[in-house]
Fold each of these.
Amino acid sequence: MTVLLNVKDLRAYYGQVQALHGLTFSLNEGSLTTLLGANGAGKTTTLRAICNMVRSTGGIEFDGKPLNNRSTESIVRFGIAHVPQGRGTFTTMTVEENLQLGAITRKDNAGIVSDIERMYAHFPVLKQRHTQQAGTLSGGEQQMLAVARALMLRPRLMLLDEPSFGLAPLVVRDLFGILGKINREDKVSILVVEQNAQLALELADQAYVIETGRIVMSGNAKDIANNEEIRKSYLGY
Amino acid sequence: MELFTNQVLAGIATGAIYACMALAVVMIYQAIDHLNFAQGEMAMFATFISWQLMQWGVPYWGAFAITLVLAFVGGIAIERILFKPLAKAPVLTNVAGFIALFAIINSSAGLIWDFTIKQYPTPFGSSPFLGSQLISTHQAGMIGVTLLMLVGLYFFFQYTRIGLAMRAAASVPESARLVGINTSWMIALGWGMASAIGAIAGMLIAPVVFLEPNMMGGVLIYGFAAAVLGGLTSPLGAVVGGFLMGIFENLAGTYIPGVGNELKLPIALALIISVLVVKPAGLFGRHIVKRV
């Protein structure tokens, strides 16, 4: 299997405060990898560092090409779609405009139109609401919209920051089902950061556990889920 | 009744100019969260450039078009040189930047073209419009050009990709970057467009107020007032606010005894304050709720 994303000795800083202390991990092409850890462990910072939204040092390679020192907007053009914490919805715009914005770097108009239809097939609720202001959608619908917006890029890698946050358990199940389907059928590699470890481990094939800015555990998601000691000490269930 | 109609139409004509200025102010406010105090001076300078071009023998519409392009490029240059470096600076630093820009442009215009009042031509003539005494052809032209520009802008922002990208960059900059929009250039583009819109306002109002370096002072105050009245977060509100300002101003001057020309500005502003007491975000503005 080829390595799609390779992160080496990643250190990130918020002003004087160091949030990541030399993180090393990799993600295989086509895999669904999850990054687990408690509040403040550095999960969000890791995603933000990949997209150069926070000052960092260390090596980040995507498909063999270094991403360091590139602007956030140019990293998108490598085919990396980032669904940020809080979903990043363009609340004052319509659902359809949000989808168009996801494809704003693409030039193939016909492809964009057909992809919007494809998203409506994935997420029928978005079709019903396509002329509504995105801010009027419920939390779950906005998360669907955020995932759909990211897919409009036709990404090779999708970064998801706590997609389950603030959603009802049933909605989360739905969403994770869709993520698995996207991963298998559309061959999109996914890196998902989650606090809901149980659910994330069910979905993922690879898992990393972060604690205070360092990787403390890594391996096959099933193995980690079955290891009671790890579960109790790091994942809290 | 004829007096009333006459005053309303005249109000709409000057209101069109206020609407342009208000729209320019709102565009920059949306992009960088600051009021551009130098918006009027930028418009004045552009108007001088068009005048100079006409002095050199360029026909009116040629000068108009060249000026728009120069104003657009100039607006982008001002953003890149002066305000991009100030993007993360405190509010007061930005305010100082705007005041400096105001003084620099105003004095440069005075130095180049001196402070004497100059006649500025109108391409529409100043005969009665369609034979009626209600409105002159120049006033009708002001309204016409403004409406054309507004329709053009509406289509630009609603139906083009770059317009969509500009709206996205102004509303949620971080998400805009995450979908691959270069927000920094969108801000520069906003400055260029605001500058060009201001130039249109300057060239349309110059035949009425005459051309001189301080010609836009009063106009910009009305523009600000219109923007605040309509809501600084709403381009549509700014435009409606501009037209309302023009109409209020004229009606107050005509019908409220003892007001006349001198007091119509305070009266109009007082009316705005009354509106803002009831609707603090302006008529069309949104309350911005931030999670902390």
Amino acid sequence: MAHSLLEKIKSGVLWDFPGGVHPPERKSMSITDSVDTLPLTDYYYVPLKQHIGVYSELRVKVGDKVKKGQALTFSNHNMAVPVHAPTSGEIIEIGEHVSSHASGIPEKTVTIKSDGLDESIELQPQSHFHTQSKESIIKALQEAGITGLGGAGFPTHVKQQAQDIEYLLINGVECEPYITADDMLMRNYADEIVHGIEVLAHLLEPKLVVIAIEDNKPEAIAALDEACKDKQQFIVRKIPTKYPAGGEKQLIQVLTGKQVPKGSPPAALGIVSQNVGTCYAIYKAIYTGEPLIERIVTITGENLDKPQNVWARIGTPVEHLLNTAGYHPEDINAQKLVMGGPMMGFNLHSAQVPVTKSTNCIIAPTQQELPPAPPEKACIRCSDCADACPASLLPQQLYWHSSAKEYDKAQDLNLFDCIECGACAFVCPSDIPLVQYYRQAKAEIRQAEVEQEKAEQAKKRFEARAERLEKEKEARLAKHKKAAENRKKAMQSDPSAQDKVAAALARVQAKKAEQTENNTDSAQSTVKSKAEQAIELAKAKRLAKQGETKTSEEFSNTNDNENASDNKSKAQAAIERAKAKRLAKQAAQAQAENTEADANITGAQNTTDAQSDTKADTKSVAKAAIERAKAKRLAKQAAQTQAENTEADANTTGAQNTTDAQPDTKSVAQAAIERAKAKRLAKQNAQAQAENTEADANTTGAQNTTDAQSDTKADTKSVAKAAIERAKAKPLAKEAQQIQTEHDEANASEPKLEENNDKSLQAASSASDTKAKAQAAIAKAKARRQQSDDNAEMNNATQATHEHVDISSDNKAKARAAIERAKARRQQAEQQTNEAASVEENDHDSEQKVRIKAAIAKAKAKREQGQ
Amino acid sequence: MTEYILLLLATVLVNNFVLVKFLGLCPFMGVSGRVETAVGMSLATTFVLTLASFTSYLINNYILQPLDLTFLRTLSFILVIAVVVQFTEMLLHKTQPTLYRLLGIFLPLITTNCAVLGVALLNVNEQHNAIESIIYGFGAAIGFSLVLILFAAIRERLAAADIPKSFQGTAIAMVTAGLMSLAFMGFTGLIKLS
Amino acid sequence: MTLISALIVLGVLALIFGSILGYAAIKYKVDADPLVDQIDEILPQTQCGQCGYPGCKPYAQAIADGDDINKCPPGGDNTIHKIADLTGREYTPLAGTESDDVAEEVKKVAYIREDECIGCTKCIQACPVDAIVGASKAMHTVITDECTGCDLCVDPCPVDCIDMLPLAQTTQSWKWQLDAIPVKQVH
């Protein structure tokens, strides 16, 4: 059978494919004697991906000098081919540039500024390819960036890896109207094409090579006949002119009578087809070593003085091509530019679109030549489309289902076998843009598939996470259980264990006593902390009893009275924020604001606190506690008034902190209040567990206090605080504390005087700072407001940030990049901590400042939102 | 034998229950939105109709008539139909949960499908024997299925077609049903009136 | 006499039929509703919890048990239509919207402004699909491809550095506009 088929093909039998149309050709317009090479232009835009397949990675960066033919990308993936520099020059930009795609959506593009020298890299021809291994030739094709030049841009080397090929079809059909690029190539470079075909034949070892050319190109047929004169294996076959005979599947059907099964490549039938342009590119790559950096492009249309074919470098902007051909648009704004043929091409969004590997034609038509599509009318069921369809589909049915979004039914009718040739739309008497419907439907289906895949993935990840959490929980439970058992066992096996518990309790008691003792000694900080606690408790009680509103007002009043102009701005800020609170509609928002405002204050405190960094740390820890407490409380109660109060309180605290030391204790007291509240509200804390940890912490605290040295003061303080804080939850402990703190208060006043002096000095210096910051913040907030008013601007901003958010197919790479970034950040963070630890105040300060500014700005923005 | 075939053919085409006798219009309009649903409904109805037709014959001939209790006919027929439908529902729920959901309320509504009771009562009226009863019930069901699936297919097409706004939805469905009925009237010519 | 025989006949008939149905009820007992899995497949698997259930599967279960089908904002109109088709229920517009404003949902993904991230790991804990990478006190970032756009990380962030940004359209995800290219151009 195969043999007889071979005989048949050799004897010149041709088959036919169903349907097809005969659009007016208009090819003569751009046919000239020879193909000129386009002069160099200044800028070249080389899109990184010009083929079907996967993205390659960049191997150059901005500022690099490149030479003609130098590879710009690399990839180890089989479906990827590199792109090459079309001329020598400097890379001035790697970014988004309008793509040569129907959508015109910007794509990643390397912009090369030509230096005019057109210096080439050293070329490595492999003209003795017969002696080389097939792998090395295929590799060379891949390295040369060769893809199908017919239109789809399928990587050529992939096709060449096929095995058991009987027929190699060379496609010189060029059935689209207007385009003459392949025709001109065959007329002028027939020998080169044949050399290229020889390379292919060497790789595939087919039984027969058929070069198919439509019968409307007699000169091309003659030229190739001449070139193939002494090649037994090569047949030049004239085929009848019919659109779309140049489609791969249609061509195969015409030449061999075989239909390519759905979803399988022609190679499965033992057939490989290549475009004549591709053959020429292969010739170039193998015989001269030059990668694919230029191709023939037809520039035609009635708005050009000299329609012609030119050798254009990949990356040349279309504008340059048009200008070369004497472009004279009637109306530059209304001018339509079509890339590709009129049947399957698309309108360009900009004349800056670069020529890519699959660009074969640019048409600049007049209005009469390619008029805009008339309005779509109702389908009259004439079935002309079904007659014209070269794939024997039912265009009318597909249209109905596509337009009704019944995509599953459209798929049942083999929507994906549509080659989008446009024959159906061409014959439609109702001017229905059928192909657009199919394209849309296909895009929707593909999108849905992608989403389905993503959903599957998300589900898997979610389930994995749930499982992990469950395991962790179990492990934790098991650990607790084990610990409890061990304790029990220890208790049972060792009667003295009970004594130990007693001993531990005793230690706790001892610690408390020691603490008191310590305080009565002259350990300044401890005294202070104790005093704070005392005040905390007192305040907590008072606040609990009185309404908080009152207290806060008191605070702000005293604040206003006591403090000078510096404070006013702060107070104002506080009032403003309070207002903001009132305006805030959602509790969640209020909460966020609170946190921000607090962070702000923490920053303020930190900047003021120039002397001991460690102290600032402790405070920030305390503040963090406040934040958390507030968050919890707000989340639970969402009482706006209360939120206001806390806000006001906190702000006052901050303001007071900056000016004198007396209220400083107040702020800490506030912190304590908050903590106490948090405690009260924290329900989740398992009582037993809490007790355990508390006992432990207390013991540690006790030890620490005993060992207290001046240099570890800060540490002790924080630990003690934490311990006491926790202990407060226990009513018993509370009582003890109260006694203790009463005791402390008496002792507190003296050492504090010293500190007050210190603090006021610092405050004076930082006051001006604070003011400046506040101003800056207000300015920022204003800017923000404007921005939020202006939608367009907002969108811009979004777009700008958006670069990070584009999807790549390679998940892993992304994840890796993300982790790397995270690592980098962590290092940075560590560095910062180190700096802080080594009391590099300036850095620390500026850091804080930035944070404060950001926080204030955010708070304002939030308020705007609330309004 | 010829008799039986003629009976079947007559029930399916000439005396089509839906388009000629106008019985069982509720599911005809209700479940004809999609072909898949229509096929499921057809299968369920076929099962119920055939079984109910036969069972009601048994009850009528061997219980009611000997005991002279023919006045209980309607009551007992409805009992039979209800049981068969209920049984079908359980079966479907177990084996075809999607179809079960798709049919929704129309599945229990087969009970009140007048075609089902109609077949049982017509069997008595026409004094069919056991085999004739089964064939009559089966034929009625086939006729119903045929029309239902055809109608559903047409409606599916209609959904995507550009119908004038005032005709969209039920209106065009009614017009279509009327035209189908007219077409089925043509089958009357199959029988030579003599 | 007729009365008694009628009663007996009907009684016996009812008894027989009743026992048949009772037997069928046991024999064809439906254990697990396979519908749940089918609904779960339709749901977008963002695991966002906006329906009020802790994930998509529980919501699928709830729908099968009779809950409303219009509680899935990420799935949008499309999902509701699909569920309506599957369950044979009436289509209802998304809860909280009018039937008219079924604006095309733009798919969004979370984006962390990395300069502002303080490394609190709160968002990592909130993410239902583990799409946020980072460690304590180190900057976090979102794996865009894995993000379902569920919003759950936005609220926990204490410094509000997470934005939900619409996904950029690429030439791959672009859908043809009907009037983009007049195909029939040659006359």
